[in-house]
């Protein structure tokens, strides 16, 4: 009975542990330490119950009882997984299939090693579902497979889950499911044929299995890495485009300054002529027009941080050209935040606000508040908005929502929210968004820990 409990736990717990591992803390309903403690205790309890059930069902019904209990455990696991992880369905299914691949791979390796070491002797002796040799093989394969699997999940899969938008996962999701199921089918064929083939053919099948395993791991790596690369290149290209527009604006401002200096000479000459002729009233009117024109050409300073100030000048200029009234309150100094990251944060937020105002019938406005609170940078941008689309798992009545709640970039201002959320995680901050349908207001709140990037680099 003890062997059955240990075998069931060693085979099951790594899978349960790994399906929760890729998701960030804010996506789990329980604290990570509490979650994994509950998972360990729950799996241990199920393993003990499994051992008792198998003890009472020895004989010809042992395999049937073991499979029935396994499906029961799978049902409990999937139900708990769906409840405890607050993420979109496609993300949860994607992680589930990756971990399912690990479980099938471990099972296949155990049978391969069993065939090499013990021949065709079954891993179950009729008295227990697992034998001592089988448990040792499961422990050995777990020791060999779990470290690279955890490295893959934490370094590649977690980045993919956090950074890639759900709408862009469908293609990779379909490819991953098809390749995983095909590989599992091939593993099942190899697993069921080694009883009936000669040793030479069995070794050929083993080599074939290892080659297919290599290509399957390569497919996983290419799917996630390539998607991340394309996404990051797209963000870098967009950042470069914004910077190019900023440089063009600076060059335009310099040209305007040159023209203003040229025009000033003409203005002074005109004023001198009026003064000589005693045309005082004409001089006052002329000066009033000059002051008004000069005020329109001025670049307003919003804050001491040159990156934020430049972004505000650029986007407020766009908004003003489209008749959008902007109110700004910005008080921030130089910070340990990459200019490219600030461009993603403030640029996406302002573009969302401007796009929403374009579609709004009525007075168009944007309210921008930026300031520092302790070691945090706080940004709040509100704008008029009367149209959004939410994921079916969320409601506007829930108040502030994560970026994943807004599923469309074409309606109501969901564009780039995922990029904002991914960037704030880099600084240990938070990003949340709210739509008030009664007042037609969309609000984005962003908080960054300004010391986090420095800590990470050190």
Write up this protein:
By secondary structure, the chain is α+β, with helices and mostly antiparallel strands. It has two domains: 236 residues, no CATH class; 157 residues, Heat Shock Protein 90 (2-Layer Sandwich), CATH 3.30.565.10. 66% of the residues lie in helices and 9% in strands. Strands 1-2-3-5-4 form a five-stranded mixed beta sheet. The longest helix is centred in the middle third of the chain and has 79 residues. The C terminus is likely disordered.
Would you summarize the structure shown here?
The protein has 458 residues and is of the alpha+beta class.
Question: How many runs of DSSP E, i.e. beta strands?
Answer: 5
What characterizes the major β-sheet? 5 strands, mixed
What is the topology, as strand order, of the major beta sheet? 1-2-3-5-4
Strand content: 5-15%
Topology order in helix (H) and strand (E) letters: HHHHHHHHHEHEEHEEH
**Average pLDDT, to the nearest integer?**
78
The level of helicity is 55-70%
Number of H- or I-type helical stretches: 12
* Quaternary: single chain
Q: Topology of this protein?
A:
Layout: H1 2-20, H2 32-55, H3 62-84, H4 89-118, H5 132-163, H6 170-193, H7 199-277, H8 280-297, H9 306-321, E1 325-331, H10 339-358, E2 365-373, E3 376-384, H11 417-426, E4 430-436, E5 441-449, H12 452-457
Parallel strand pairs: 1-2
Antiparallel strand pairs: 2-3, 3-5, 4-5
Keyword list:
458 residues; alpha+beta; 5-stranded mixed sheet; 66% helix
